[in-house]
Amino acid sequence: MNIAEVKNLSMSIYSGKGVPALILDDLNFYIREGEILGLIGNSGSGKSMTAMTIAGLLPESAVVTSGSIEIDGKDVLKLSPKDRRKLLGEEIGMIFQDPMTALDPLETVGKNLDEILRIRNIPKEERKARIISMLETVGFIEPERIYKSYPHQISGGQRQRVLIAGAALLKPKLLIADEPTSSLDTVTTVSILKLLKDICIEMHMTILFISHDLSVVNNFCDRVMVMKDGKIIDSDNTEDILHNPKNAFTAELLTKAKLDPRSLGLEFSEADPSASPILKVLDLSAAYRNGFFGRKGSKNTIEGINFDLLPGEIMGLIGSSGCGKTTLAKTICGLLKPTAGNINSYSGKVGVVFQDPVSCLNPMHTIRWHLNEPLIAAGIKLTSEERDKKILEAIKAVGLEEKHLARYPGRLSGGQRQRAAIAMCLILEPSVIIADEPFSSLDASSAASILKLLAKINKERKTSILLISHNLRVVRTMCRRVLVMSRGHVVEEGLTEDVLKSPKAKATKALIEAEKQLS
User: Fold this and answer.
1) How many CB atoms lie within 10 A of CB 104?
2) 359-411 confidence digits (pLDDT tens)
3) How many Å apart are CA 52 and CA 178, to the nearest integer?
């Protein structure tokens, strides 16, 4: 029995000028009850737009021009807006790629999830009990603490579990998961996949799973569809699609999707082990204060961190979700006040590149505005001509063109947005860059281009980089040394080859074992 059937579906986006852009072109597919259907394709192929069309979450400028979407025999395109909204949650659940943009940062996790039940007139006492129960179901050991926490106070993996809990609260028949593991480490990815599969079985759900990580799709999906330019060009069982592709584009996609840094011909700056450090961290501890305004007590999130970074060195920082990697990055950058210890930057300039460019770029302003802001904030006095020249140099340094300066973030691809974010970092000419998962949310082609860019910056500018990544292949190739974090502490450190070949810490062994499971 099919839980969903999409027939002759086409969708266009109207910009108000010229011919509307055809985004989805005559889609035809079905999803069987209880199966996990994978959807793969290049960035911009229409994967997320397919999900949004099914869920009824399209922007106002998007119009379905033909076709039907039947869920349990009902054509949802013929429902009234009120009934369509009711369908989302009760019949269709949605897990978004980035939890930070899907959760309200001004409300606690409990309040975020409570809204799902409150609008359906469920009594308050019952709402909290159901939320706590669901938080336990998705693997939280302390559901009450998570319930009271704000989204920024929990890790990326924990936020993803919260989204899964929210999507499963009303036990929908169809769960759409749009890149739910793209920003997670290998250990957390394995646990999230197991969680989704368990929920699928226990709650009798069907899953449409969108991902650019083919190792995840291979381990998780029963069937796979391939999209290109808004069309489904291939569909078969997972084994045939990923291991015996008959379609030429599918074969090409599989080749490009294998992000192997060794094949990119990367060159790096040679760090001198005897040189004085450019960044030194001593006995560093930090905490997020409880309560939105930080008026309540706190417990250290990272504790007793010690390391140094050499001039021109790329050092890796790895660990499971929630171990404190991003907290350490924020503390070094001055975005979080340490509770103990010292950070000595002998260069004076530390830049940062965050994981998700969407959440650090203002959609209301152009890229030129974004590059000008750091100059204003730093109090750098320049003439108009000097400012324009510096902005142009920064945008060209990351492989973009002058025309991109006039564009808004929404008019750029994921890879272009990340390049713009790196340009914002480079414009102040930092000696140290903290790169927090700078390519995890990108497809393999875009990720490869960002890898090349970071290597070029390191080689040509002798810039030191602290690279936070869950991709151990990237860390092996790019990083001379590596730190491993677990539960707020550095539990292992040393030369990358030694640490990853002969791991001693339990956390390191877990990361390597999870990598093997996914490979």
Assistant:
1) 12
2) 788 989 999 999 999 999 989 999 999 999 999 999 999 988 999 999 888 77
3) 10
